[in-house]
TrEMBL record:
The chain crosses the membrane at residues 12-29, 41-57, 101-119, 125-143, 164-184, 204-233, 245-267, 287-307. This is DUF979 domain-containing protein. It holds the Pfam family DUF979. InterPro entries: DUF979. The lineage of its organism: Bacteria, Bacillati, Bacillota, Bacilli, Bacillales. Keywords: Membrane, Transmembrane, Transmembrane helix.
């Protein structure tokens, strides 16, 4: 299957996402007591536009939309309102009525995502879209909900996840930007004036801590790996006799320790707060911090012992 066909299929799913975001904006505008409804609706409209028409409008305009969304978020103009939530009574009633059948759509979604991603030429992104549709069909067969509840619940999840839902996309773009702009070279030159060459322990510590800190900044160890390996890992570990396989593997898993410590890792540390309606904004990070610190120390020791 050609790349053009795959991109066209992806565009269909992006348009569907954009239409859902427009529906969320519509419901917000319908709210009569939403004191920030115009700012909130504008955020979702701008995001919907990038999903639906992003490839067809000038890049400068896409950039302006992103900046505008950032400003709306910065000045706290995006809030949750006018969602249709499930009451405890309705949830308990549904659980008693359907029992374990409620897990069938989720299981089908997971199996379909793995199958399409690994055993077809469609790939992971399209696999998620296909599996979502199959999961929705399974939900209709098992639960038989009214059509409007599908839209209500999609809107509820969209608003509860909120602005952090687009953070992974921004961080991925930031990683590319850092690599292209030569941030790694700048870091390498700065580090070389501070760290003594030939000290294996300091080199291992700098590599792991660099991965942790950059991962905390970017929210993604994969994006940090290229920059930190080029700027610290190669000159201060691998060039000093460190095994590149062992050092690279430990640097990557060490970077994931930084994921435990940052709100920039939205999928892991911010979305649970929104979905579970936790009162403490950084509750997940505080719970993970002791384990993360212990694992960072262990990674430095393992790199020092195993890589050299």
């Amino acid at each position: 299957m050609s790349e053009g066909i795959l991109n066209n299929i992806l565009e269909i799913f992006y348009i569907l996402i954009g239409l859902q975001l427009l529906y969320t904006a519509f419901r917000i505008l319908k709210s009569s007591d939403h004191h920030k409804k115009y700012g909130t609706a504008l955020f979702w409209i701008l995001l919907a536009t990038t999903f639906i028409a992003g490839p067809y409008i000038p890049n400068a305009l896409n950039g302006a939309f992103i900046i505008a969304m950032g400003l709306l978020t910065l000045f706290k103009q995006v809030t949750i309102k006018n969602i249709v939530d499930v009451t405890d009574k309705e949830g308990n009633s549904g659980a008693q009525k359907y029992g374990n059948k409620l897990f069938v759509p989720a299981v089908i979604l997971a199996i379909a995502a793995i199958a399409v991603s690994n055993w077809t030429p469609l790939g992971g992104a399209i696999g998620l879209g296909v599996s979502s549709i199959l999961g929705l069909i399974a939900a209709y067969i098992v639960i038989k909900p009214k059509m409007r509840y599908v839209f209500y619940d999609s809107d509820r999840l969209t608003q509860q996840i909120g602005t952090v839902g687009i953070l992974p996309q921004f961080l991925a773009a930031l990683g590319v930007l850092f690599t292209v702009s030569g941030v790694g070279d700048v870091i390498s030159k700065g580090i070389s004036t501070v760290l003594p060459e030939g000290n294996h322990l300091i080199g291992a510590a700098a590599y792991i801590l660099g991965m942790v800190l950059f991962t905390m900044l970017m929210g993604n160890a994969f994006a940090a790996f290229t920059v930190i390996t080029a700027s610290i890992g190669i000159p201060f570990v691998i060039a000093q006799g460190g095994d590149p396989v062992i050092a690279g593997a430990l640097a990557m898993t060490g970077g994931f320790c930084g994921t435990l410590l940052t709100p920039m890792a939205a999928n892991f540390n911010t979305l649970p707060v929104a979905l579970l309606e936790m009162k403490e904004e950084f509750g997940v990070i505080k719970a993970q911090a002791p384990v993360a610190i212990i694992m960072i120390i262990i990674h430095i020791a393992l790199m020092y012992v195993w890589a050299f």
